Amino acid sequence: MIKAIVFDLGGTLIDYAGGYDLWPDMEGPGLAAAYQVLHEKPVRLPAMETFRRIGYIMLPQRWQQATRGEQNLTVRGLLDEMVAYLRVKGIKSAWLDEAAAAYEDVVCGRSETLPHAQTTLAQLKQEGYKVGLISNTMFRGRAHIGDLEKFDLLPYFDALLFSADVNLWKPRAETFHHVLEELDVPAGQAVFVGDDPASDVVGGRNAGMFTIHYQSHPRFPTPDGVTPHAAITTLEQLPTAISSLV
């Protein structure tokens, strides 16, 4: 018997990509906002194009390290590494905090809910399921909590995990177990719903959960041998997909 539904955030409930089809290109507005903050300080920065290029090189590397459990990743930490690599002198810690906040603000400000997100969450709660969320994100959790509040999604959740806050990243099984313990539901009675097969389907299955791939966009390929228990193309289909698992 299924007792809990756990969701991914970006690309599953809220869209942060805007008009960008590729990652890390979609991080461009955040890097530009951070650069603008630092550009206004009494420091010597390289050209914006150089700053962005280094961000695009570093971010995928640091993301992979985080998902492998090698080190945590935060926006603030990424910016710190970038300015150190670029040998920018005289940067104050408070300026990097301000730049990181600007990065988060501009990306979150472009966010939109995926169709039927609120109605689907409401239906699941009405049907008696516990609802959780696991987001692979380098943002502070409070930034995404603000997004959930903005779109009236926050009240539906019984447990939330934002990877950068606790250094727990999908697809590591312990990330899923952390939320399941908070929900007090065993893995075999829980479903994970997400748009990225490599982190959501692989991670959920490794944790012993049922998995549903939400095919909301083509950005993430499905690795060979990765098969979800079910797939949907709209959140409206989720309750029916869940019922097919039992």
Structure description:
The protein has 246 residues and is α/β, with parallel strands linked by helices. The chain folds into 2 domains: 4-15 and 111-243, HAD superfamily/HAD-like (Rossmann fold, 3-Layer(aba) Sandwich), CATH 3.40.50.1000; 25-109. 45% of the residues lie in helices and 13% in strands. The protein is built from 10 helices and 8 strands. It has helices at 28-39, 48-67, 75-85, 93-109, 117-126, 141-150, 163-166, 173-183, 197-206, 238-243; strands at 4-7, 14-15, 112-113, 130-135, 159-162, 190-194, 210-214, 230-232. A 6-stranded parallel beta sheet has the order 5-4-1-6-7-8, with helices on both faces. Helix 6 links the parallel strand 4 and strand 5 (159-162). Helix 1 crosses helix 2 (48-67) and helix 1 runs antiparallel to helix 4 (93-109). The longest helix has 20 residues, at 48-67. The chain is elongated.
Order of helices and strands: EEHHHHEHEHEHHEHEEH
The top-level CATH class of the largest domain is Alpha Beta
Which runs of at least 5 residues are low in confidence (pLDDT < 50)? none
- Whole-number radius of gyration? 19 Å
CATH fold-level topology of the largest domain: Rossmann fold
Global outline = elongated
**Count of DSSP-assigned helices:** 10
What is the percentage of strand-forming residues?
5-15%
**Overall pLDDT metric:** 95
> How would you name the oligomeric state of the polypeptide chains in this document?
single chain
